[in-house]
Write a structure and sequence with these properties.
The strands form three sheets. An eight-stranded mixed β-sheet has the order 7-8-10-9-12-13-14-15, sandwiched between helices. The longest helix is centred in the first third of the chain and has 23 residues. By secondary structure, it is an alpha/beta fold. The radius of gyration is 27 Å and the shape is elongated.
């Protein structure tokens, strides 16, 4: 059985594991404790040291032995974040440890019960007591994040860059504030034709709700960093793609590559590939222009709509004056700094956060989508996307799911008047949340807004009772 002391010392081992992760090693850490004092520490270093024996446990055993001046570690306990392998278990038995405590089980090489149990072998002349599963969740989560990142890197290396596209260097996305999630990539969707699309996919696949978060122009999935932890804490799944041309996705060099119908098709294929179910469509700006046309293709997948400062451009009504002003400004300032624009719209952003919004666009060549998108909003009835948007309007007028709107009242482009017109086309949409100090980039309002959304989109039985 474990004790509070076990939890305490396992946290010390986790600190060592994080050091291994920071160095690019498999994140396993260990400490040796004698009479309540840590006398040896270690983390995985086989790659750095070119030493197959440089496991965390071995490093901690060596340091403890030097500290005591004896290779026998009688009365000592070793804490390690992952079940020991046969090599390390053998060293622990030779050291005459009194006890071994591990976190996550290792079903592939574990020698404390998963593959074999050296500690229970009766023919050995020393028996060390072994306790497993202490702080198993954080120990296992650290390993899962590490290997998810490694798999993403392998997929990235296996996905060649098309000659007509650019790919933002990965180092520009290092250490972004508030954005710790492992990247996911897909390049084999038919509509992509080999371009690589980036998306986040966090939380259980069978979650009660899946939040499909679609960003606008000139943002990317970084926009949702305040919402994602709240949705995950509720036990939900979050999928947040970067549109082609934005974020970590590939960026076609030519503006003409961007078309409304093509971007929509990419999103439809992604939803199908990931088999998203019980979806709350969560949209802002272009995320709504495209996203609001998705549910009618597979209504059974969708349970709710959370819309923020966006519109349906149907081509049979004038575009908002604020948007026309924005489009003209973009034409006059094609190389505007994204971070500076976000800083003006959201004065509370830190310098590091503004830099994160700039990260996908290191030069003019990476900015074709930013120049193209203002011109892609359908204005006349026969523009690309206008007819499908009219079909979508008819769908939302018959909508049977749950809806919520949040309006940034300081938005000069797609503010309250635009959102109220959209609300009139969504059956059963309640009074919106009006955010007096928020502007166009409503998700920057933060975690409180995400918590309000979680409270609104209740479990299915309650949802059916509250929504038409």
């Amino acid at each position: 059985m474990s004790s509070p002391d076990d939890e305490h010392f396992m946290r010390q081992a986790l600190i060592e594991a994080e050091r291994a992760a920071a160095a690019g090693e498999v994140p396993v850490g260990a400490v040796v404790v004698r009479e309540g004092e840590v006398i040896g520490r270690g983390h995985n270093q086989p790659v750095r040291t070119h030493d197959p024996s440089a496991h965390a446990e071995m490093q901690a055993l060596r340091e403890a032995a030097v500290r005591l001046g004896n290779y026998r570690l009688d009365g000592c306990t070793l804490y390690v974040t992952l079940e020991p392998c046969a090599m390390c278990a053998g060293a622990m038995l030779h050291a005459r440890l009194a006890r071994v405590v591990f976190g996550a089980a290792d079903p592939k090489t574990g020698a404390a019960g998963s593959v074999l149990d050296l500690f229970a072998e009766p023919r050995l002349n020393h028996h060390t007591r072994c306790t497993g599963g202490v702080a198993a969740e954080p120990c296992g989560a650290l390993l899962q994040r590490f290997f998810a990142g490694r798999r993403a890197q392998q997929r990235q290396a296996a996905s060649p860059l098309r000659d007509d596209a650019l790919r933002t260097p990965a180092q520009r996305f290092a250490d972004l504030p508030g954005y710790p999630w492992a990247p996911q990539f897909v390049s084999d969707l038919p509509a992509l034709a080999g371009l690589r699309l980036h998306y986040l996919d966090e939380g259980p696949a069978d979650a009660p709700l899946t939040w499909l978060c679609l960003h606008g122009n000139p943002g990317w999935s970084y926009l949702w960093r305040h919402f994602i932890p709240v949705f995950l804490a509720a036990g939900h799944r979050v999928v947040a793609p970067d549109l082609i041309g934005f974020g970590k996705s590939d960026k076609p060099k030519k503006e003409a590559a961007h078309r409304f119908g093509w971007h929509r098709q990419v999103l439809l294929e992604l939803v199908e590939r990931l088999n998203l179910q019980r979806v709350v469509l969560t949209v802002q700006d272009w995320g709504g222009l495209l996203g609001l046309t998705l549910p009618m293709e597979a209504p059974a997948r969708y349970r709710g709509l959370f819309a923020m400062n966006t519109l349906l451009a149907t081509g049979d009504a004038p575009l908002p004056p604020g948007f026309l002003d924005w489009r003209a400004w973009c034409a006059d300032h094609p190389d505007y700094a994204v971070g500076r624009l976000l800083g003006r719209a959201v004065p509370t952003l830190s310098e590091a956060e503004r830099a994160a919004y700039d990260a996908p666009f290191p030069d003019r060549g990476h900015r074709a989508a930013l120049r193209a998108f203002p011109r892609l909003v359908p204005e006349s009835a026969d523009d690309d996307g206008a007819a499908i948007s009219r079909f979508a309007r008819d769908f939302w007028r018959r909508w049977q799911g749950c809806s919520l709107m949040a309006i940034g009242l300081q938005d000069p482009v797609l503010g309250e008047a635009v959102m109220q017109r959209l609300r009139a086309d969504i059956r059963g949409c309640p009074e919106p949340l009006r955010l007096a100090h928020a502007g166009h980039f409503v998700p920057e309002a933060g975690e409180a807004l995400a918590r309000a959304a979680v409270a609104h989109f209740a479990p299915p039985s309650e949802l059916r009772a509250r929504c038409p």
